Amino acid sequence: MTNLRILVVDDDPVTRTLLTKRLIRDECTVDTAEDGVVAIEKIASQYYDVVLTDLIMPGGVDGIRVLEEAKRANIKTEVILITAHASVDNAIEAMKKGAVDYLQKPINFDELFLRIDKIRNLKMLIKNASDLREAMDITEKTSAETIQELEMMVSELKGRLTAIRATLEQSDVDPETRLRLALQGLDADSLTD
Amino acid sequence: MIKIKPDEIKVLSNYIYSISGISIDASKAYLLETRFGKLLEEEGCKSYNEFYHKAKSGTDKVLETKIINAITTNETLFFRDNGPFDLLKFKILPDLIDIRGGNGKRPGFSNLKIWSSACSTGQEIYSVAIVIKELLGNSNQKFTLLGTDLSNAAVTQASAGIYNKFEIERGLPREKLQRYFVPAGGNWKIKDEIRAMASFRRMNLMQPFVGLGKFDIILCRNVAIYFTLSDRKKLFNKIADILEPDGYLIIGSTESLTGVCPRFIPKRHLRSIYYQLN
Question: What's the pTM value of the predicted model, to 2 decimals?
């Protein structure tokens, strides 16, 4: 679970290599894409925990498109945008579209790893919550069946006791017959469906 | 984080009980600290004692409201347990519509009133609304759907009908998401046609039920679990008082009314239980 699958999208080969090396050292599984078009293909064919993408790239598909496709492919994929200083406004726009973070170039690796750690922790928390919920769902379901069964049984028994009491209290019938009828009431039908 | 002392737990628990009916025992120190830690800081209190006194003495009840919002558990999801919603779709709604239509009143046109008595952030009542929509489309059958909750914050969100991706993901099949919600920023908003079917109000179940009238269907799911047995008895008796004689009560799937309210009889349909008046 701590091993994140990351897609690095950047048109600069040096950046790609650098990021890949550092991320692998941080125990991540890394794929790369040299532009938005390739990125989208890769995103369509497999799941990534994190997509690290340049905002502005040649080739007609920019970081925002990559972000949209990543989110469309799987809502759990987190996208971090890398931007030049001048395009911070764009980055903020992208955050509104669902990017989890943005980093300015030149990339401060310490900062990058802090962000990735945060994402890691977030995913762990989510998994935790999801596990808890599943455990709760199963427990609830099993208890529910038992409790409902008991509820119906108790109700049926109450009804039966009421009927038997009525039988026993029938003053116009002789005691022996009353007892016989009452015992019949006990035996009649089964208690469960 | 400021720790709560044993004697403070008792005082605070009693206070919470008095304003909400929620019963918290002494072992729940952790719960109180988790729920109130931040609020304490925001209010500038140095201890839970100070916190309690501030809440108690506040004539505008602002802090009291915040406390209620913080202590209520908003664990809810769309179509929780599924069972009750199938029950509504295949048994209760068809039966009610038949019966109401068959007793001489204008067939099927009388108003069916449904109450979600611990509606939290609205998922339950909206799920009911969706079931109704899918069952009846745009028929002439009128419905009144009311959602109430102790927590102001929950009712406000229910009224807004906006849910984030986590709230939506739970229990809602994709095609229902597409059909009944629209994207709103990074969130999802319930469509107007569903939103218009329900109204919301803040309400404390411990207080007398005033001005509600009678209901045909009442949902009281997974809220009584927070109350003492004695309060549960009172609650379901009050509910029995405002349920139509042939009305239906649905409670949480792991809850039971045995020993709680003999006025209700359990009945089973498919794999769900519902209750009707004796």
Answer: 0.77
